[in-house]
Amino acid sequence: MSPELDVLLCQRYPKIFVDRRASIQTSCMAWGFSCGDGWFEIVDAICARLQHMTDHEGAPQVVASQVKEKFGSLKFYVRRATEAQIDEISRIAGRSNHICEVCGAPGATVVAGGWHQVRCAEHTPAGALSFSEFAARRRAAQAEWERLQSPQGQRRLRGEA
Fold it and tell me: In the sheet where 33-34 sits, what is the strand order?
């Protein structure tokens, strides 16, 4: 995330990002927000909801321990959260599965260079596969591997068939 948006989130939610400048020995927030600017609105919505729950619904104050992209989805890890707060994080973060991480436009999961990412048409890397195409190729490769592991496949590999 851009330094400007990083600063903005920390200004808006100082209690949630109290560890933003902590050492890497104590918090992964020391690395900053490890996701693209396109997910700023989602991170902001999570923070707004969490702070509202704390300020108006009696929930404990959560502290972010890490905010990142993983396997094409936004992950927002916190300390001191209730089940309800965790559910809200999951619900709101789920939006990242359909929002381009680069620009915030509607997007879909693609796989490029082995990396899962959510991209709009404009930001999809050349040669990227749709997730369904990637999954189909992976199933085909798994079936081929299993075929080669069979006794008949092993004989073929040794040139006996």
Answer: 33-34, 63-70, 73-79
Q: Check: CB of residue 72 under 8 Å from CB of residue 117.
A: yes
Q: How far, in Å, are 41, 44, 48, 101 from residue 92 at the CA level?
A: 10, 10, 11, 15
Whole-structure pTM value: 0.87
Closest by Cα among 70, 88, 66, 59 to 17: 66
C-alpha distances (whole Å) from 143 to each of 140, 152, 154 are: 5, 14, 14
Rounded Cα distance, 157 and 143, in Å: 16
Q: Which regions of the chain are under pLDDT 70?
A: 161
- Tokens coding 134: 């990637």
Domain locations in the chain as residue ranges: 3-97, 132-161
Residue 14 parent element (H or E): none
Helix (H/G/I), strand (E/B), else coil: 69: strand
Q: What percent of the chain has pLDDT over 90?
A: 86
Q: Which two tokens stand for residue 85?
A: 């707060």
Contact by Cβ (8 Å): 78, 85: yes
Count of residues in the chain: 161
